[in-house]
Amino acid sequence: MKDMKRFETAVIHEGYDSLQHQGSLIPPLFQTSTFTFPTAQAGAERFAGEADGYVYSRLGNPTVKILEERIALLEQGEAALAFASGMAAVSATLFHLTKSGDHIICSEGVYGCTFGFLKLLEEKHYITHDYIPMDSEENLRAAICDHTSCIYIETPINPTMALIDLEMVARVAKEFDIPVVVDNTFCSPYLQQPLTLGCDYVIHSATKYIGGHGDVIAGIVVGPKNELETISTTTLKDIGGVIAPFNAWLLLRGLKTLPIRVDRHCDNAIKIAEHLKNHPQVEKVYFPGDKDFPQYELALKQMRRPGGMIGFEVKGNLEDAQRFLNQCRLIKLAVSLGDAESLIQHPATMTHSVIPKAERLKMGIKDNLIRLSVGLEAWEDIWDDLKQALDHLTNSNEPNEQTLK
Ligand SMILES: *Cc1c(COP(=O)(O)O)cnc(C)c1O
């Protein structure tokens, strides 16, 4: 692998040489569906894979290529592939790693649509899966069977922020020669690099921190070069979830500020988590940067910083959670995360509503759990908004006191 510049430099420069592009400081946007061949023979050679050169943008595009090379380096992987969405990346990777009769081991709690896709694989393609608590080597070993063909994890787990020891999972998986796939969306490559801990594939919903501006849907897979080449020429090419060149260009633009944005997300989240913990209407806070977080040590070990995502339970039931959310003003009520704007949502009725209630509760997603993506605003303003919404809950939870005043 090539020597990489420091992360903060790599996000700006890696994978692109302006002198190869008429000095254009910014990577050009190749907004084209197809590429002309100088001769019939050259076209035939490109189709035969005997000559380099672009053919058609579903098979490859120069703007997309720059993005892929940059992200591969940031994750310290051999290669990367960009997709139309995080889910296109997840589904193509799982399709690639499994066949009928295979078995997938999953962390307990995955992104809602990943949950849906795993169900579809089971129902239509006889690829089974088990969600297991991956908190110990014993649990993981016990779940592995002779047709397990991949281990799929998210850490931190959305939205309870529970962590999985990536080094432990990678070590056990190696013994059985099972590839480990990590959805690294919540961390971005800046905070966590699963490949350096022995995992095999990293997936991102680039819609989130990598894009960072709430204006693009996209996905990325990073992994072994030969495997990604196969994905590129099969599941990506033939199912067709390719990224639009303009979206790749937007991601290149977003990436440049990834480290400074994520540092600010983390700074803000640390402040907000502290304040949430001390509010009487908050029952529990889930944040890897909290010293009382059960896996605080693991967070220190495998994450550069705690991230910008916080889960917390308000006092009360589902209706109280909804009343609290309806009271937020600055913080926008929306799913997604990693944007400049603080975003708040209700997992039980939104991102995780497809999961049957019993399973959802087993994952620790109670009706009063709120997920907050801490934005880049002044943390004091974010807190003021949360505080007035929480105080509103206090007032409406104690109607007698209110009327007496
Ligand atoms: C958003 C998200 C996805 C899906 O990504 P899209 O870009 O919306 O398709 C997958 N995993 C996680 C953890 C996510 O947050």
Question: How would you describe the overall organization of this protein?
Answer:
This protein has 405 residues and is of the alpha/beta class. It has two domains: 7-30 and 61-255, Type I PLP-dependent aspartate aminotransferase-like (Major domain) (Aspartate Aminotransferase, domain 2, 3-Layer(aba) Sandwich); 259-396, Aspartate Aminotransferase, domain 1 (Alpha-Beta Complex). Helices cover 42% and strands 14% of the residues. The chain has 16 helices and twelve strands. It has a seven-stranded mixed sheet, with helices on both faces. Helix 8 (188-191) links the parallel strand 5 (180-183) and strand 6 (201-205). Helix 3 packs parallel to helix 10, helix 4 packs across helix 9 (225-239) and helix 13 (318-327) packs across helix 15. Residues 400-405 have low confidence and may be disordered. The structure holds pyridoxal-5'-phosphate. Pyridoxal-5'-phosphate binds next to helix 4. Belongs to the trans-sulfuration enzymes family. L-methionine gamma-lyase subfamily. InterPro entries: Cys/Met-Metab_PyrdxlP-dep_enz, Cys_met_metab_PP, L-Met_gamma_lys, PyrdxlP-dep_Trfase, PyrdxlP-dep_Trfase_major, PyrdxlP-dep_Trfase_small. This is L-methionine gamma-lyase.
Offer a few descriptive terms.
EC 4.4.1.11, 405 residues, Aspartate Aminotransferase, domain 2, alpha/beta, globular, 7-stranded mixed sheet, disordered C terminus, L-Met_gamma_lys, pyridoxal phosphate, 16 helices, 2 domains, PyrdxlP-dep_Trfase_major, 5-stranded mixed sheet, binds pyridoxal-5'-phosphate, L-methionine gamma-lyase, Aspartate Aminotransferase, domain 1
